[in-house]
Amino acid sequence: MRILTVCLGNICRSPMAEGVLRHRARTEGLAIVTDSAGTSRHHTGEAPDPRAQAAMRRQGIDIADLRARQVLPADFDRFDLLLAMDADNLHDLQQLAPDAARRDNAMLIMDFAPRHALREVPDPYYGGDAGFDAVYRMLDQAVTGLLAHIRHGR
Ligand code: 4NP
């Protein structure tokens, strides 16, 4: 299973999502290839935002090694699932899909947390630390649902 998480800048939400998924796949013994990317190329090469790194460190998860890159059409061949943080990210991602079948592999990450009140992960960039902690909690719920889906094929 190969999973790409996608946001706008690839320095806040999607590297946090990648970090949660990578950490839980490792600790729960699931073979999942993870990566993340941004629909914008603005932050290419940057490490995750210090506030995102700090929020993850509060959960015992290190994402300092991750580096931002822009999402590519070829990512639809390289990944089984492409999980967008919000509707804008999903829309931009779908524009890159080579065909309709592969476009269906792009979803909202919160589709895997159907009982959560929010369908989109809010952009924490212009807010404070509490926003990053809230993003972590949302992503943790989504990853729980995603891993159940992978284990049980539903
Ligand atoms: P992300 O957050 O999409 O979660 O990585 C953002 C990072 C940077 C910007 C916007 C959102 N920016 O406008 O620079």
CATH architecture verdict? 3-Layer(aba) Sandwich
Q: What radius of gyration results from the CA coordinates?
A: 14 Å
**Major sheet details:** 4 strands, parallel
**What is the CATH topology assignment?**
Rossmann fold
Structural class label: alpha/beta
Which residues form runs of ≥5 with pLDDT under 50?
Answer: none
Q: What level of helicity do the residues show?
A: 40-55%
> H/E order of the elements?
EHEHHEHHEH
- What's the overall geometry? globular
Ligand species: 4-nitrophenyl phosphate
CATH superfamily: Response regulator
| Widest sheet: strand ordering | 2-1-3-4
Strand content: 5-15%
Total number of beta strands: 4
Structural domain tally: 1
Which key features would you list for this structure?
154 residues; alpha/beta; Rossmann fold; four-stranded parallel β-sheet; 12% strand; binds 4-nitrophenyl phosphate
Description:
Helix 1 links the parallel strand 1 and strand 2. The chain is α/β, with parallel strands linked by helices. Strands 2-1-3-4 form a 4-stranded parallel beta sheet, with helices on both faces. The chain has one domain: 3-Layer(aba) Sandwich (Rossmann fold), CATH 3.40.50.2300. The mean pLDDT is 97. The site of 4-nitrophenyl phosphate has 10 residues, from loops.
Compact overview of the structure:
With 154 residues, this protein is α/β, with parallel strands linked by helices.
Set out the fold topology.
Layout: E1 2-7, H1 13-27, E2 33-38, H2 50-57, H3 75-78, E3 81-84, H4 87-95, H5 100-103, E4 106-108, H6 129-152
Parallel strand pairs: 1-2, 1-3, 3-4
The structure holds 4-nitrophenyl phosphate.
The site of 4-nitrophenyl phosphate has 10 residues, from loops.
